[in-house]
Amino acid sequence: MKNKEQSQELIKTLLENIGEDTSRAGLLDTPKRCVKMYEELLSKTNVDPKEEINTFFESDNDEPILVKDIQFYSLCEHHMLPFYGVCHIAYVPNNKKITGLSKLARLVESASRRLQIQEDMTLMLVNAIEEQLQPKGVYVIIEAEHMCMAMRGIKKIGSKTVTSKKTGVFLEDTELVKDIQYKIKL
């Protein structure tokens, strides 16, 4: 964060503007804690997530590799409220090039730590995998609950938004897509 003190003052002003007494015990350190929280939740704002895919291996496997149920938390750019859920990533290796499974989880973590919309996060993940691995195809599915829909506005607790993006062989082979969807129970 560029200027922590200024950010803390802004949070203190916000609390005062909603009628809180910022001198009461429970709120004395709230501006500091809030800034620290935003630093953590938005820690990858100016980081290109593709950098997480930095280890490569060779494999004769030419079948889809699926890492499913990668949990994440992110913040909606419209209301700065959390959205959270799971991400499923499948890709079909090309030219024997694969990456470590943890790299895909790190990719999701990096992509999620910024203000954004779920649709853009989905595309960001696909683009990173395409660029770093040049696979025969990528299929990313994100299932998330948005607090901006649950806590305010329409107040629909438990509703989930599903976004997906397919490239390459996943666009051409419907059986391959059905197999991945079956494996993640979509």
From TrEMBL:
<dbReference type="Pfam" id="PF01227">
    <property type="entry name" value="GTP_cyclohydroI"/>
</dbReference>
<feature type="domain" description="GTP cyclohydrolase I">
    <location>
        <begin position="9"/>
        <end position="179"/>
    </location>
</feature>
<comment type="similarity">
    <text>Belongs to the GTP cyclohydrolase I family.</text>
</comment>
<comment type="pathway">
    <text>Cofactor biosynthesis; 7,8-dihydroneopterin triphosphate biosynthesis; 7,8-dihydroneopterin triphosphate from GTP: step 1/1.</text>
</comment>
<keyword id="KW-0554">One-carbon metabolism</keyword>
<feature type="binding site">
    <location>
        <position position="76"/>
    </location>
    <ligand>
        <name>Zn(2+)</name>
    </ligand>
</feature>
<dbReference type="GO" id="GO:0008270">
    <property type="term" value="F:zinc ion binding"/>
</dbReference>
<protein>
    <recommendedName>
        <fullName>GTP cyclohydrolase 1</fullName>
        <ecNumber>3.5.4.16</ecNumber>
    </recommendedName>
</protein>
<dbReference type="GO" id="GO:0005737">
    <property type="term" value="C:cytoplasm"/>
</dbReference>
<dbReference type="GO" id="GO:0003934">
    <property type="term" value="F:GTP cyclohydrolase I activity"/>
</dbReference>
<dbReference type="InterPro" id="IPR043134">
    <property type="entry name" value="GTP-CH-I_N"/>
</dbReference>
<dbReference type="InterPro" id="IPR018234">
    <property type="entry name" value="GTP_CycHdrlase_I_CS"/>
</dbReference>
<comment type="subunit">
    <text>Homopolymer.</text>
</comment>
<dbReference type="GO" id="GO:0006730">
    <property type="term" value="P:one-carbon metabolic process"/>
</dbReference>
<dbReference type="GO" id="GO:0005525">
    <property type="term" value="F:GTP binding"/>
</dbReference>
<keyword id="KW-0378">Hydrolase</keyword>
<dbReference type="InterPro" id="IPR001474">
    <property type="entry name" value="GTP_CycHdrlase_I"/>
</dbReference>
<dbReference type="InterPro" id="IPR020602">
    <property type="entry name" value="GTP_CycHdrlase_I_dom"/>
</dbReference>
<feature type="binding site">
    <location>
        <position position="79"/>
    </location>
    <ligand>
        <name>Zn(2+)</name>
    </ligand>
</feature>
<keyword id="KW-0862">Zinc</keyword>
<feature type="binding site">
    <location>
        <position position="148"/>
    </location>
    <ligand>
        <name>Zn(2+)</name>
    </ligand>
</feature>
<keyword id="KW-0547">Nucleotide-binding</keyword>
<keyword id="KW-0342">GTP-binding</keyword>
<dbReference type="GO" id="GO:0006729">
    <property type="term" value="P:tetrahydrobiopterin biosynthetic process"/>
</dbReference>
<dbReference type="InterPro" id="IPR043133">
    <property type="entry name" value="GTP-CH-I_C/QueF"/>
</dbReference>
<keyword id="KW-0479">Metal-binding</keyword>
<dbReference type="GO" id="GO:0046654">
    <property type="term" value="P:tetrahydrofolate biosynthetic process"/>
</dbReference>
